[in-house]
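SAMPLE LOG
Freezer: B-3
Tube label: C17
Construct: single chain, 527 aa
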Amino acid sequence: MTSSVPSDVLGRRILCDTEYATVRYAGSVPPTTGLWLGVEWDSPQRGKHNGSHEGIQYFKCTHPTGGSFIRPNKANFGVDFLTAVKNRYGLNDEQDVECEKENALVIGKKTVELVGFDSIIEQQSQLNKLVDISVSECAVSHAGQKEEISRTCPNIRSINLSKNLLPSWEKVTDIACQVQNLESLDLSENKMKFPSASITCTLSKLRVLALNRTGVTWAEVLLCAPGWPALEELYLASNDITVLERPINVLQTLKLLDLSNNQLIDGSQLQLIAYLPRLEQLILSNTGISSIRFPDVGFGCKTKMFPLLQRLAVDDNKILQWSFINELDKLQCLQSLHCQNNPLMGTEKNPETVRQLIIAKIGQLKVLNKSEIFPDERKGAELDYRKMFGNDWITAGGNQNPDKDRPNEEFLAAHPRYQLLCLKYGAPEEGELKRQQPFILKNQLLTLTIKCPDQPDQKPIEKKLPDSMTIQKVKGLLYRLLKIPGSELKLSYESSKMEGKEIELENDLKPLQFYSIENGDSILVRW
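STRUCTURE (predicted):
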């Protein structure tokens, strides 16, 4: 090899103009003369062929147009870690640094990025005081001289090494193992080769690791994981991970796992990671899953799987069946669910309808699609659910008499929480149930009686109100009728079919239909 080409050139990552590539070949390409590098581009649109020239295959590409031949002088093989740090923070060896404007440092004629230099330029001017370092897109390819990083930057705790030229996990550990107190490491968008056997380097204090778009497999993660004994957050988005394996004696401290944008074979893969004892947040966005099962328990019981899982994201998937939502009620600690952009969300005409169903089906949920579930919304959703599926319950064998209440297995599988809601609010009476499609939101006039129970001189008023009218607008109407400001009014309603039972109308933004108010019911007004 010539002096301008590293001896370990094959497999090296390079930068050519603004495009990233991996060197797959170095040598001659007849009939031309001189040295050529055969490279596979990260972006196949940049290439011209599959690694062949005039019928000879010099190297192979995963994409038919992913390859090119370039001259070595076109390739940037990168710099060592400390050179990148000095360039980024304006700390070159000559200290030929001047501040020309508030938000830039100039080294000679080169302007470099500032990171909070206005207030801490004096402190940052010394490498040994750097704590949080970002050298993203700085063409870092290797550690440099042995132990130089640990001597020069002993206080580093966080490193952003995303989108650099690191070719392998070995090169990463050459850097990271010199940083004794390293807590956070971002290696995203470095296409690396990972080890096929266990590694010896242990990052004992590493808590956060990002390996998004690195090409890592789950098997490779498990091989490296013994070196991360304190890891709490692991980001593995966009790596084409399709198969999982059960972690054994590794990742036991993990609290957050991001597997988004990996096309998992099916939801049953999740059972293999279901016993991570401390996992609190799982991100499965755009993983192609359509089902999930916790087969260790039946409906109405809590699974031992994912024992501490509180936050789950399954948006942008293929979820169509309500059985998916029913299964989630088995989780012991689930409080937050993000499930937008699934076919299930389009099964009802109104998105609010689907939201109500999910709330009614998952009893402990507190946040749905980043929107908090308030107590009055839960109460309204559960009352509606209990009422709307009441006819199905009776048909399936449900009965107000506990001795005769035996709904069949099919109904209980479709509505696992229904019996619990009957205990909570009372079993529905046949007279209050209506034959209609569950949760179809109508736009009709309701004939209601407005009563003021604490004002004996105020006679009841009968009014026709649209069921889409919000509680806030009802209060506006009452202000015109009673001359009492809406802010002072407290509303509840009494069903004509359930005398003596009042239900508060607590949320001003909800329509009458949200509370299942019907013709003949009474609005009770107090102030």
